[in-house]
């Protein structure tokens, strides 16, 4: 049977996936307890990256001090807010510190610390906006960030004042939607919007003396777990407030010059300046993207080739299995699959999956399904007379497949492989949603720090274009060699 020839392919696939698992897993010989802490690193001044690409902010400094005084270490997992919260709920992380507001619904899922910050909600428009009061929002659309207390407060007013809401997953996109006039206003925690305006965001707080009640900000752990970590946080927070450490941290981020964290104004106002001041971050993001792409291309191609061969097997079972796998994983959006593998699956199997491994597995299953479909199509497009001629010469069905059909079919599919390589490279950007610090996530963190969205994303776009062009040239060269 053809399936007997799958063993070398399966061996290579397993070996390469194991290598990806090793790359994605960080081992530590430190005897100190190590906790996995998730965060949203695009929420200045609570959580963001500074000009040296270190994670800083009110949350980060408090967490660092708690760890120091209680002699434990932690591994930080920055990602989108909702994903960060789900990591804790599903046991992938031990705690979350992300400017997260305390409310009754969250208390049902998490155990929460004493509040370490009390925040108010401001509503914001463009400086020259004709909207002067909440009543002026009637019939307009308001931008909100998913999962935040400010969003909950804003949504609670929509019926009273007759406005519609539009949700975003990151702060910078939400701000720019208002700046560009696509939405009329937004609601945001007051210290967050204060920091953004100081940093150059062209928005204005309306009625700053009349803030909505957002409540307290807390540190969260999964309900019924990590009681010691929560107790250490509460005890240390009380001590920090008593000895003045807490006030120093708050003043550091709310009253200091923003250039301390984001770099000089000249660096942030020109594309060349941004590129120069963030060259290390861009380079690291590009390397992570390259690593994901190489692993993804190789493993997805092997998996796709296996699916393609299964699709032309003599056995109805293997053909049906190939068709089913291709149908399922081509039908799932890449981001949904990434969230399912990284956040959903560990809650079922009870095993934590490293982000890099989850990202590679996502690419294998999704890109491999598309590869399997066109590989199978390439094999089936080989003239049927080729198989008949091979069998008439005494070759078995298996020998005819491997020696006649597969070589010709692969030549036919070379252009499709080229396209799929490029698609795989671009699809790595979606994996930023599960915290992988590839090129797109790097751009998001830089924008959160300096609020220069247009220039940063222009740089990211050019980098992607250059890499895709190089990959296309290489693929075309390879196609000529094979043809």
Task: Offer a concise description of the structure.
The chain has 483 residues and is an alpha/beta fold. Helix content is 60%, strand content 13%. A hairpin with a 5-residue loop joins strand 2 (48-49) and strand 3 (55-56).
* Outline type: elongated
**Count of all domains:** 3
Uncertain runs with pLDDT below 50, 5 residues or more? 25-29
CATH hierarchy, class of the largest domain: Mainly Alpha
Number of strands: 12
Portion in beta strands: 5-15%
Q: Main beta sheet, described?
A: 10 strands, mixed
Q: What CATH architecture of the largest domain would you give?
A: Orthogonal Bundle
Quaternary organisation: single chain
Number of helices: 21
The CATH topology label of the largest domain is: MetI-like fold
CATH H-level homologous superfamily name of the largest domain: MetI-like
Helix content, binned percent: 55-70%
- How far the N terminus sits from the C terminus, by CA atoms, comes to 29 Å
> Quick check: average pLDDT?
85
Task: Quickly give the structural class.
Answer: alpha/beta
Rg, Å, rounded: 26 Å
Structure write-up:
This protein has 21 helices and twelve strands. The protein has three domains: 2-22 and 277-482, MetI-like (MetI-like fold), CATH 1.10.3720; 32-115 and 217-262, D-Maltodextrin-Binding Protein, domain 2 (3-Layer(aba) Sandwich), CATH 3.40.190.10; 118-215, Periplasmic binding protein-like II (D-Maltodextrin-Binding Protein, domain 2, 3-Layer(aba) Sandwich). The protein has helices at 6-24, 58-70, 81-89, 104-107, 149-156, 158-161, 171-179, 190-198, 227-243, 245-254, 259-262, 265-268, 271-277, 279-310, 316-331, 334-349, 355-381, 384-392, 397-427, 439-450, 453-482; strands at residues 34-39, 48-49, 55-56, 73-78, 95-101, 110-112, 117-125, 141-145, 164-168, 185-189, 204-206, 212-222. Strands 1, 4, 5, 6, 7, 8, 9, 10, 11 and 12 form a ten-stranded mixed sheet that branches. A two-stranded antiparallel sheet has the order 2-3. The protein is 60% helix and 13% strand. The longest helix has 32 residues, at 279-310. The protein is an alpha/beta fold and 483 residues long. Helix 14 packs antiparallel against helix 19 and helix 14 packs antiparallel against helix 20 (439-450). Residues 286-475 form the ABC transmembrane type-1 domain. Residues 1-29 form the signal peptide. It is a multi-pass membrane protein. This is ABC transporter substrate-binding protein/permease. Pfam families: BPD_transp_1, SBP_bac_3.
């Amino acid at each position: 049977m053809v399936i007997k020839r799958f063993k070398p392919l399966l061996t290579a696939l397993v070996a390469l996936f194991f290598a990806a698992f090793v790359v994605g897993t960080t081992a530590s010989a430190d005897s100190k307890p190590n906790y996995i802490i998730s965060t949203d690193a695009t929420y200045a001044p609570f959580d963001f990256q500074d000009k040296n690409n270190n994670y800083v902010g009110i949350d980060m400094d408090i967490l660092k001090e708690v760890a120091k005084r209680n002699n434990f270490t932690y591994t930080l997992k920055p990602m989108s807010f909702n994903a960060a919260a789900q990591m804790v709920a599903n046991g992938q992380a031990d705690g979350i510190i992300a400017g997260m507001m305390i409310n009754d619904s969250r208390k049902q899922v998490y155990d929460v610390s004493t509040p370490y910050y009390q925040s108010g909600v401001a509503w914001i428009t463009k400086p020259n906006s004709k909207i002067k009061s909440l009543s002026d929002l009637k019939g307009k659309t308001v931008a909100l960030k998913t999962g935040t207390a400010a969003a909950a407060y804003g949504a609670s007013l929509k019926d009273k004042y007759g406005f519609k809401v539009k949700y975003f997953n990151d702060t910078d996109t939400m701000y720019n939607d208002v700046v560009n006039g696509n939405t009329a206003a937004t609601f945001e925690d007051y210290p967050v919007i204060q920091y953004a305006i100081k940093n150059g965001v062209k928005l204005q707080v309306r009625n700053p003396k009349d803030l909505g009640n957002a409540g307290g900000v807390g540190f969260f752990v999964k309900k019924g777990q990590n009681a010691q970590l929560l107790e250490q946080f509460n005890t240390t927070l009380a001590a920090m407030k008593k000895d003045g450490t807490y006030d120093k941290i708050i003043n550091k981020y709310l009253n200091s010059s923003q250039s301390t964290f984001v770099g000089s104004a000249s660096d942030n106002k020109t594309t060349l300046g941004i590129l120069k001041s963030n060259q290390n971050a861009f380079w690291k993001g590009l390397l992570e993207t390259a690593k994901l792409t190489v692993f993804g291309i190789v493993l997805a191609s092997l998996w796709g080739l296996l699916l393609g061969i299964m699709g032309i097997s003599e056995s109805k079972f293997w053909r049906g299995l190939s068709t089913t796998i291709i149908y399922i994983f081509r039908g799932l959006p890449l981001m949904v699959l990434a969230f399912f593998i990284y956040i959903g699956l560990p809650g079922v199997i009870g095993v934590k999956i490293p982000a890099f491994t989850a990202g590679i597995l996502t690419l294998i299953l999704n890109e491999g399904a598309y590869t399997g479909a066109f590989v199978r199509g390439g094999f089936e497009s080989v003239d049927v007379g080729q198989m008949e001629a091979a069998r008439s010469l005494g070759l078995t069905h298996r020998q005819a497949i491997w020696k006649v059909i597969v070589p010709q079919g692969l030549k036919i599919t070379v252009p499709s492989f080229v396209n799929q390589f490029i698609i795989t490279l671009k699809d790595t950007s979606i994996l930023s949603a599960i915290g992988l610090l590839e090129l797109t996530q790097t751009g998001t963190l830089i924008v959160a720090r300096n609020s220069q969205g247009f220039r940063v994303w222009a740089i990211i776009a050019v980098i992607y274009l250059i890499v895709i062009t190089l990959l296309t040239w290489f693929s075309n060269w390879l196609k000529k060699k094979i043809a």
